[in-house]
């Protein structure tokens, strides 16, 4: 590596840390599934992280390892649309680690309505997907999932067990997608969904998940972008 390349890499690392340090990041889910996301982001330089525990019956703040307290602000929140809207009002980016698919769809609705970028994950056993939803560019989850071949969303949280290694792999990917978007590095298309099967090793990218003009959710954002009010 040349001296110029070394200096350039140090500059980029410093800029990424500066951007992450200033960003307001909200992770929505449970302490059990979200802490590795929080740790990854914190170690990368993020300092304004809020972890919203909204899954009923999940671990409460007082039971979380005290060593995690410095990583983020932990908030136990009753699940209502109004509570979520108020909680993420100052967010630069929202990360979905929820286990309840109906709440995932509702969180997508809230983020699209309030122009908040959402980095979504969904895990079923050893399979998972990652999708970065950018209002005005991306399809909402209600449109994106069927287009990606995920036609039936469970009405209740999945009961199929998932090992920690899969959760940590997903969390690492969520962290990377968040860092890329916030620091404006690499490529975040906003219309691509990644699917991975940890058992078979099969990897698939579904492209072209643009906002649907006829959708009352993501369609309004697309139409506003294409035909701005003068």
Q: How is the biggest beta sheet arranged?
A: 8 strands, mixed
Euclidean distance between termini CA atoms: 51 Å
The computed structural class is alpha/beta
Q: Could you please say which CATH topology applies here? A: Rossmann fold
CATH architecture type: 3-Layer(aba) Sandwich
What is the strand arrangement across the widest sheet? Answer: 3-2-1-4-5-6-7-8
Number of domains: 1
Poorly predicted parts: 59-67, 226-230
Superfamily (CATH H level) name: NAD(P)-binding Rossmann-like Domain
CATH class call: Alpha Beta
Strand content: 15-25%
Question: What is the average of the pLDDT values?
Answer: 83
Shape: globular
How helix-rich are the residues, as a percent range?
A: 25-40%
Number of strands: 8
Q: Write down the secondary-structure element order.
A: HEHEEHEHEEHHEEH
How many DSSP helices? 7
Task: Put the structure in a nutshell.
This protein has 230 residues and is an alpha/beta fold. It has one domain: Rossmann fold (3-Layer(aba) Sandwich), CATH 3.40.50.
What this model shows, in words?
With 230 residues, the protein is of the alpha/beta class. 39% of the residues lie in helices and 19% in strands. The protein contains 7 helices and 8 strands; from the N terminus they run H-E-H-E-E-H-E-H-E-E-H-H-E-E-H. The chain has helices spanning 3-22, 31-44, 81-87, 101-113, 141-147, 164-183, 218-226; strands spanning 24-29, 48-53, 73-76, 93-96, 118-124, 127-133, 193-197, 203-206. Strand 7 and strand 8 (203-206) form a beta hairpin. Helix 2 crosses helix 6. The protein starts with a helix and ends with a helix. Residues 59-67 and 226-230 have low confidence and may be disordered.
């Amino acid at each position: 590596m040349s001296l110029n390349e070394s200096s350039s890499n140090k500059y980029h690392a410093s800029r990424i840390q500066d951007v992450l340090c200033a960003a307001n990041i909200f992770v929505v889910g449970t302490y059990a599934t979200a802490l590795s996301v929080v740790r990854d982001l914190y170690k990368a330089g993020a300092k304004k992280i809020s972890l919203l525990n909204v899954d009923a019956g999940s671990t409460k703040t007082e039971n979380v390892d005290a060593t995690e307290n410095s990583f983020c602000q932990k908030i136990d929140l009753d699940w209502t649309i109004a509570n979520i809207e108020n909680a993420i009002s100052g967010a630069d980016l929202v990360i979905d680690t929820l286990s309840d698919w109906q709440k995932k769809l509702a969180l997508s609705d809230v983020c699209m309505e309030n122009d908040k970028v959402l980095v979504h994950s969904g895990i079923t056993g050893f399979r998972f997907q990652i999708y970065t939803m950018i209002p005005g560019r991306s399809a909402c989850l209600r449109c994106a999932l069927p287009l990606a071949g995920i036609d039936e969303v469970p009405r209740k949280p999945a009961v199929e067990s998932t090992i920690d290694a899969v959760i940590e792999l997903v969390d690492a990917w969520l962290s990377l997608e968040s860092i890329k978007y916030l620091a404006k590095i690499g490529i975040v298309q906003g219309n691509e969904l990644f699917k991975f099967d940890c058992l078979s090793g099969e990897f698939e990218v579904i492209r072209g998940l643009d906002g649907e003009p006829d959708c009352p959710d993501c369609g309004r954002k697309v139409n506003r972008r294409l035909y701005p009010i003068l």
